[in-house]
Amino acid sequence: MDFLRDSRLPKAFQSEDEMLTELYSQMLKVVRHKLWHKSDAVDVVQEAWVRILEKSATLRDKEKLVPWAKAIAYNLASNANRARRHDANYDMLENELVSPTFVFEPEAMTELSDLLGRLDPTTRTLLLYKFYYGLKDAEIAAALDLPVGTVKARIHRGKARLRTQADDESGHT
After folding, report:
1. Which of 45, 49, 170 is nearest to 114 (CA)?
2. First to last CA, the chain
3. Which terminus of the chain has fewer Cβ atoms in its 10 Å neighbourhood, N or C?
4. Domain span including residue 71
5. Same domain assignment for residues 45 and 114
6. Lowest mean pLDDT: which of 10-19, 72-81, 146-155?
7. Where is the RNA polymerase sigma factor 70 region 4 type domain (predicted)?
8. Which residues touch 172 (CB under 8 Å, ≥6 apart)?
9. Are 103 and 84 part of one and the same domain?
């Protein structure tokens, strides 16, 4: 890391290798503290090292390398959490839609039809547009002349109502 050679090493470190090892350790602590999935920590720190190398010219004060590197690692950990949450939501939704219990079993289809029949017509329409016809939220919003945020919120609440009804029904049987 050539840009480190230009700066003075803090007195606590005897060599550049010691400083890099300590920096790696500190970045790993920051990332592990921030991440939901601890198994991603090493990958995030590696990505942070790449960013540090790419952006080394933007570090104005070499004395601030450690906080700068830790901030980069923290931000990348936040990004990883956000990506994981998005992937988890997408996977959950995809599993709900493609799940064999809903697609292939007639009993489950009958139960789902009954649950949908108990919903108000607007909510039922939104859920059918989204999950049966596969329309995107923006397409539904345009078709119903509603804001996209309203469509998303109503779909979310409709799914929650379906789950509640399904849980109530399974609790009574």
Report:
1. 170
2. 66
3. C
4. 2-90
5. no
6. 10-19
7. 111-162
8. none
9. no
Domain count, the chain: 2
Domain boundary among 69, 90, 111: 90
Would you say 130 and 137 are in contact if contact means Cβ atoms under 8 Å apart? yes
The pairs formed by 37-42 with CB atoms below 8 angstroms and a separation of 24 or more are 37/80, 37/84, 40/80, 40/84, 41/77
Q: How far apart are CA 51 and CA 80, in angstroms?
A: 15
| pLDDT cut 90: percent of the chain above it | 21
Is residue 162 predicted with pLDDT exceeding 50? yes
Write out 103-150 in H/E/C secondary structure: HCCHHHHHHHHHHHHCCCHHHHHHHHHHHHCCCCHHHHHHHHCCCHHH
pLDDT digits (tens, 9 = 90+) for 12-57: 556 778 888 888 999 999 998 888 878 888 999 999 999 998 988 8
How many alpha carbons fall within 13 Å on the CB side of residue 79?
A: 11
CATH number for position 54: 1.10.1740
The pair of three-digit structure tokens given for residue 20, joined into one six-digit string:
């890099």
In this structure, the answer to whether residues 106 and 34 fall within a common structural domain is no
DSSP secondary structure letter of residue 15:
S
CATH for 167: 1.10.10.10
Under the banding of pLDDT at 50, 70 and 90, the label for residue 103 is very low
